[in-house]
């Protein structure tokens, strides 16, 4: 049978590469390719899920209990909170709401791999602004890329997959240059892992009340370890979030996801204790890799970045053969999530065998 699409679909959709999920790890391999939390679920969270058995009923379409709980934390009204089946769903909703054919969406590149597809699906045009040599956002260039066609700008901090944060001062200067009717998404999926003292905090930006065009995105997938439940949230202006609610697929946040998120908020101290272990593990990994001669950008999420460039596929194969499933972006670099202690040890061991094979002056090697 021909592999052509047998029905007429939009040309920009037909041109997208078919969806390919990150490789699943075999029984003896470590999955370090999706920035998941290596800690298993807390017993209290599992118990909460086990109590939520009325699956013959639809969930509460607005996830009101979770919105109220988050609103109380952020000091906002429940209407200024929106829950999605993962924060990626909310990005999709806001792209659909804000940008269509002829419109542009500006974001740094390389950044979260879902951004280009979500912009294209909305029918809009991605405008990718290269990162600085130290893998940070070039906010001056991003501001300069804004035109009358720009409908949204996405700022990812810490940046997935490279690691560095945007500072509060950088964001404050940037937001002054963004027209007040352009949506700014501050994607803080990894905020809980940040230890940099100067990092921008979405909470502070929101509290100032000065920028109703800013929406802050957070997720339960990473620090809270609920990637499999699919639940994330946005905080922002009620009317902007209404637009996201309008483009959302109804009832896509399950009662289990809401319950798991509520139980996780109740167990936050325990979860943040785990995060502190992951942060220490991350910092140990970065220090070990740098000592081997790798050039590692400031790692503020639960992952590290190797700028392996043209050698990416070959280096990823070495990790793969050693039972380490990493995320390779061909021609660019490799992102490795901070996993179990044994996984981190193995990453350090394999990385040591690779670094010397890269030529002096390679983008992944520190300048000697
Ligand atoms: C920067 C960033 N934003 C958003 C997401 C989406 O997370 P989720 O949809 O699981 O909440 C991810 C997941 O990898 C991410 O890296």
UniProtKB/TrEMBL annotation:
Record-level Gene Ontology MF annotations: aromatic-amino-acid transaminase activity; histidinol-phosphate transaminase activity; pyridoxal phosphate binding
Keyword list, A-Z: Aminotransferase, Pyridoxal phosphate, Transferase
The protein's Enzyme Commission number: 2.6.1.57
Enzyme class: transferase
Gene Ontology biological process terms in this record: L-histidine biosynthetic process
Catalytic reactions on record: an aromatic L-alpha-amino acid + 2-oxoglutarate = an aromatic oxo-acid + L-glutamate
InterPro entries in the cross-refs: Aminotrans_II_pyridoxalP_BS, Aminotransferase_I/II_large, ArAT, HisP_aminotrans, HistidinolP_aminotransfase, PyrdxlP-dep_Trfase, PyrdxlP-dep_Trfase_major, PyrdxlP-dep_Trfase_small
Record domain Aminotransferase class I/classII large: where: 29-349
Cofactor: pyridoxal 5'-phosphate
The keyword Transferase belongs to this UniProt entry's keyword annotation: yes
Positions bearing N6-(pyridoxal phosphate)lysine: 222
Record text on subunit structure and interactions: Homodimer.
General function of this protein: Aminotransferase that catalyzes the conversion of aromatic amino acids and 2-oxoglutarate into corresponding aromatic oxo acids and L-glutamate.
Family: Belongs to the class-II pyridoxal-phosphate-dependent aminotransferase family.
Protein name: Aromatic amino acid aminotransferase
Species the sequence originates in: Microbacterium mangrovi
Gene: pat
């Amino acid at each position: 049978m021909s592999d052509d699409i047998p029905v007429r679909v939009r040309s920009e959709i037909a041109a997208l590469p078919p969806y390919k999920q990150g490789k699943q790890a075999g029984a003896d391999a470590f999955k370090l390719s999706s920035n998941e939390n290596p800690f298993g679920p807390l017993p209290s969270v599992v118990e909460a899920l086990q109590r939520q058995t009325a699956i013959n009923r639809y969930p509460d379409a607005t996830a009101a209990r979770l919105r109220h709980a988050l609103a109380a934390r952020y000091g906002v009204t429940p209407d200024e909170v929106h829950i999605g089946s993962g924060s990626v769903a909310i990005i999709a909703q806001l792209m659909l709401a804000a940008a269509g054919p002829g419109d542009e969406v500006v974001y740094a590149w390389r950044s979260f791999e879902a951004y280009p597809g979500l912009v294209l699906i909305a029918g809009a045009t991605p405008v990718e602004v290269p990162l600085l040599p130290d893998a940070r956002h070039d906010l001056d260039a991003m501001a300069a890329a804004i035109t009358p066609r720009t409908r949204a700008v996405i700022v990812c901090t810490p940046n997935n997959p490279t690691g560095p944060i945007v500072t509060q001062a950088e964001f404050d200067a940037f937001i002054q240059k963004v027209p007040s009717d352009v949506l700014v998404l501050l994607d803080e999926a990894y905020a809980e892992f940040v230890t940099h003292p100067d990092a921008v905090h979405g909470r502070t930006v929101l509290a100032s009340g000065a920028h109703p065009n800013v929406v802050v995105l957070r997720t339960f997938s990473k620090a809270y370890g609920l990637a499999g439940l699919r639940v994330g949230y946005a905080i922002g202006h009620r009317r902007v979030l209404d637009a996201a609610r309008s483009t959302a697929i109804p009832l896509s946040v399950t009662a289990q996801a809401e319950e798991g998120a509520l139980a996780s908020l109740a167990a936050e101290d325990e979860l943040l204790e785990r995060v502190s272990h992951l942060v220490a593990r991350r910092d140990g990994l970065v220090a070990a890799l740098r000592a081997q001669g790798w050039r590692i950008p400031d790692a503020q999420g639960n992952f590290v970045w190797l700028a392996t460039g043209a050698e990416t596929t070959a280096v990823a194969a070495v990790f793969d053969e050693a039972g380490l499933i990493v995320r390779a972006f061909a021609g660019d670099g490799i992102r490795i999530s901070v996993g179990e202690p044994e996984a981190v040890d193995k990453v350090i061991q394999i990385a040591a065998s690779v670094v010397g094979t890269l030529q002096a002056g390679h983008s992944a090697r520190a300048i000697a």
